[in-house]
Amino acid sequence: MVTRIGTKNRKTRHKFSRHYKEKGKVPLSQYFQTFDNGAKVNLKIHSGIQKGQFFPRFHGLTGTITGKMKGACYEVQITDKTKKKMLFIHPIHLKKA
User: For residue 40, what are the domain limits?
Assistant: First the structure.
């Protein structure tokens, strides 16, 4: 088997780039936002914070909050093609759908 080259954020230069007006200080309202059980959320990586990031392939998908928290991160269920997957994501990387 061939060894994987690079890290998980490889080839994401344009995918994770932010608009020039959004660069700089992290918005605290997004960092500490709360979600209800069963809420629909959009997955969008905030490139300034690595805590609670998910794999880049899931960037732009919509998931459902299952209610359980692990530390500061929410448990989100997504559908990857036909499989259901559970991800632990920090609120800075989530937006209400």
Answer: 36-96
Contact criterion met (CB below 8 Å) for 29 and 50: no
| Residues of the chain by 3-state class (helix, strand, coil), percent to 5 | 10, 30, 60
Number of domains in the chain: 1
For 49, counting Cβ atoms within 10 Å of its Cβ (0-12 exposed, 13-18 middle, 19+ buried), the class is middle
What is each CA distance from 34 to 20, 41, 51, 59, in whole angstroms?
A: 26, 11, 17, 20
Residue range 22-35, pLDDT digits in tens: 899 898 999 999 99
pTM passes above 0.85: yes
Q: What is the pLDDT of residue 40?
A: 98
Question: The domain spanning residue 79 has which CATH number?
Answer: 2.30.30.70
In three-state secondary structure terms, 29 is helix
> Residue 1 — pLDDT band, cuts 50, 70, 90?
confident
Q: Which of 57, 54, 38, 64 minimizes the C-alpha distance to 90?
A: 54
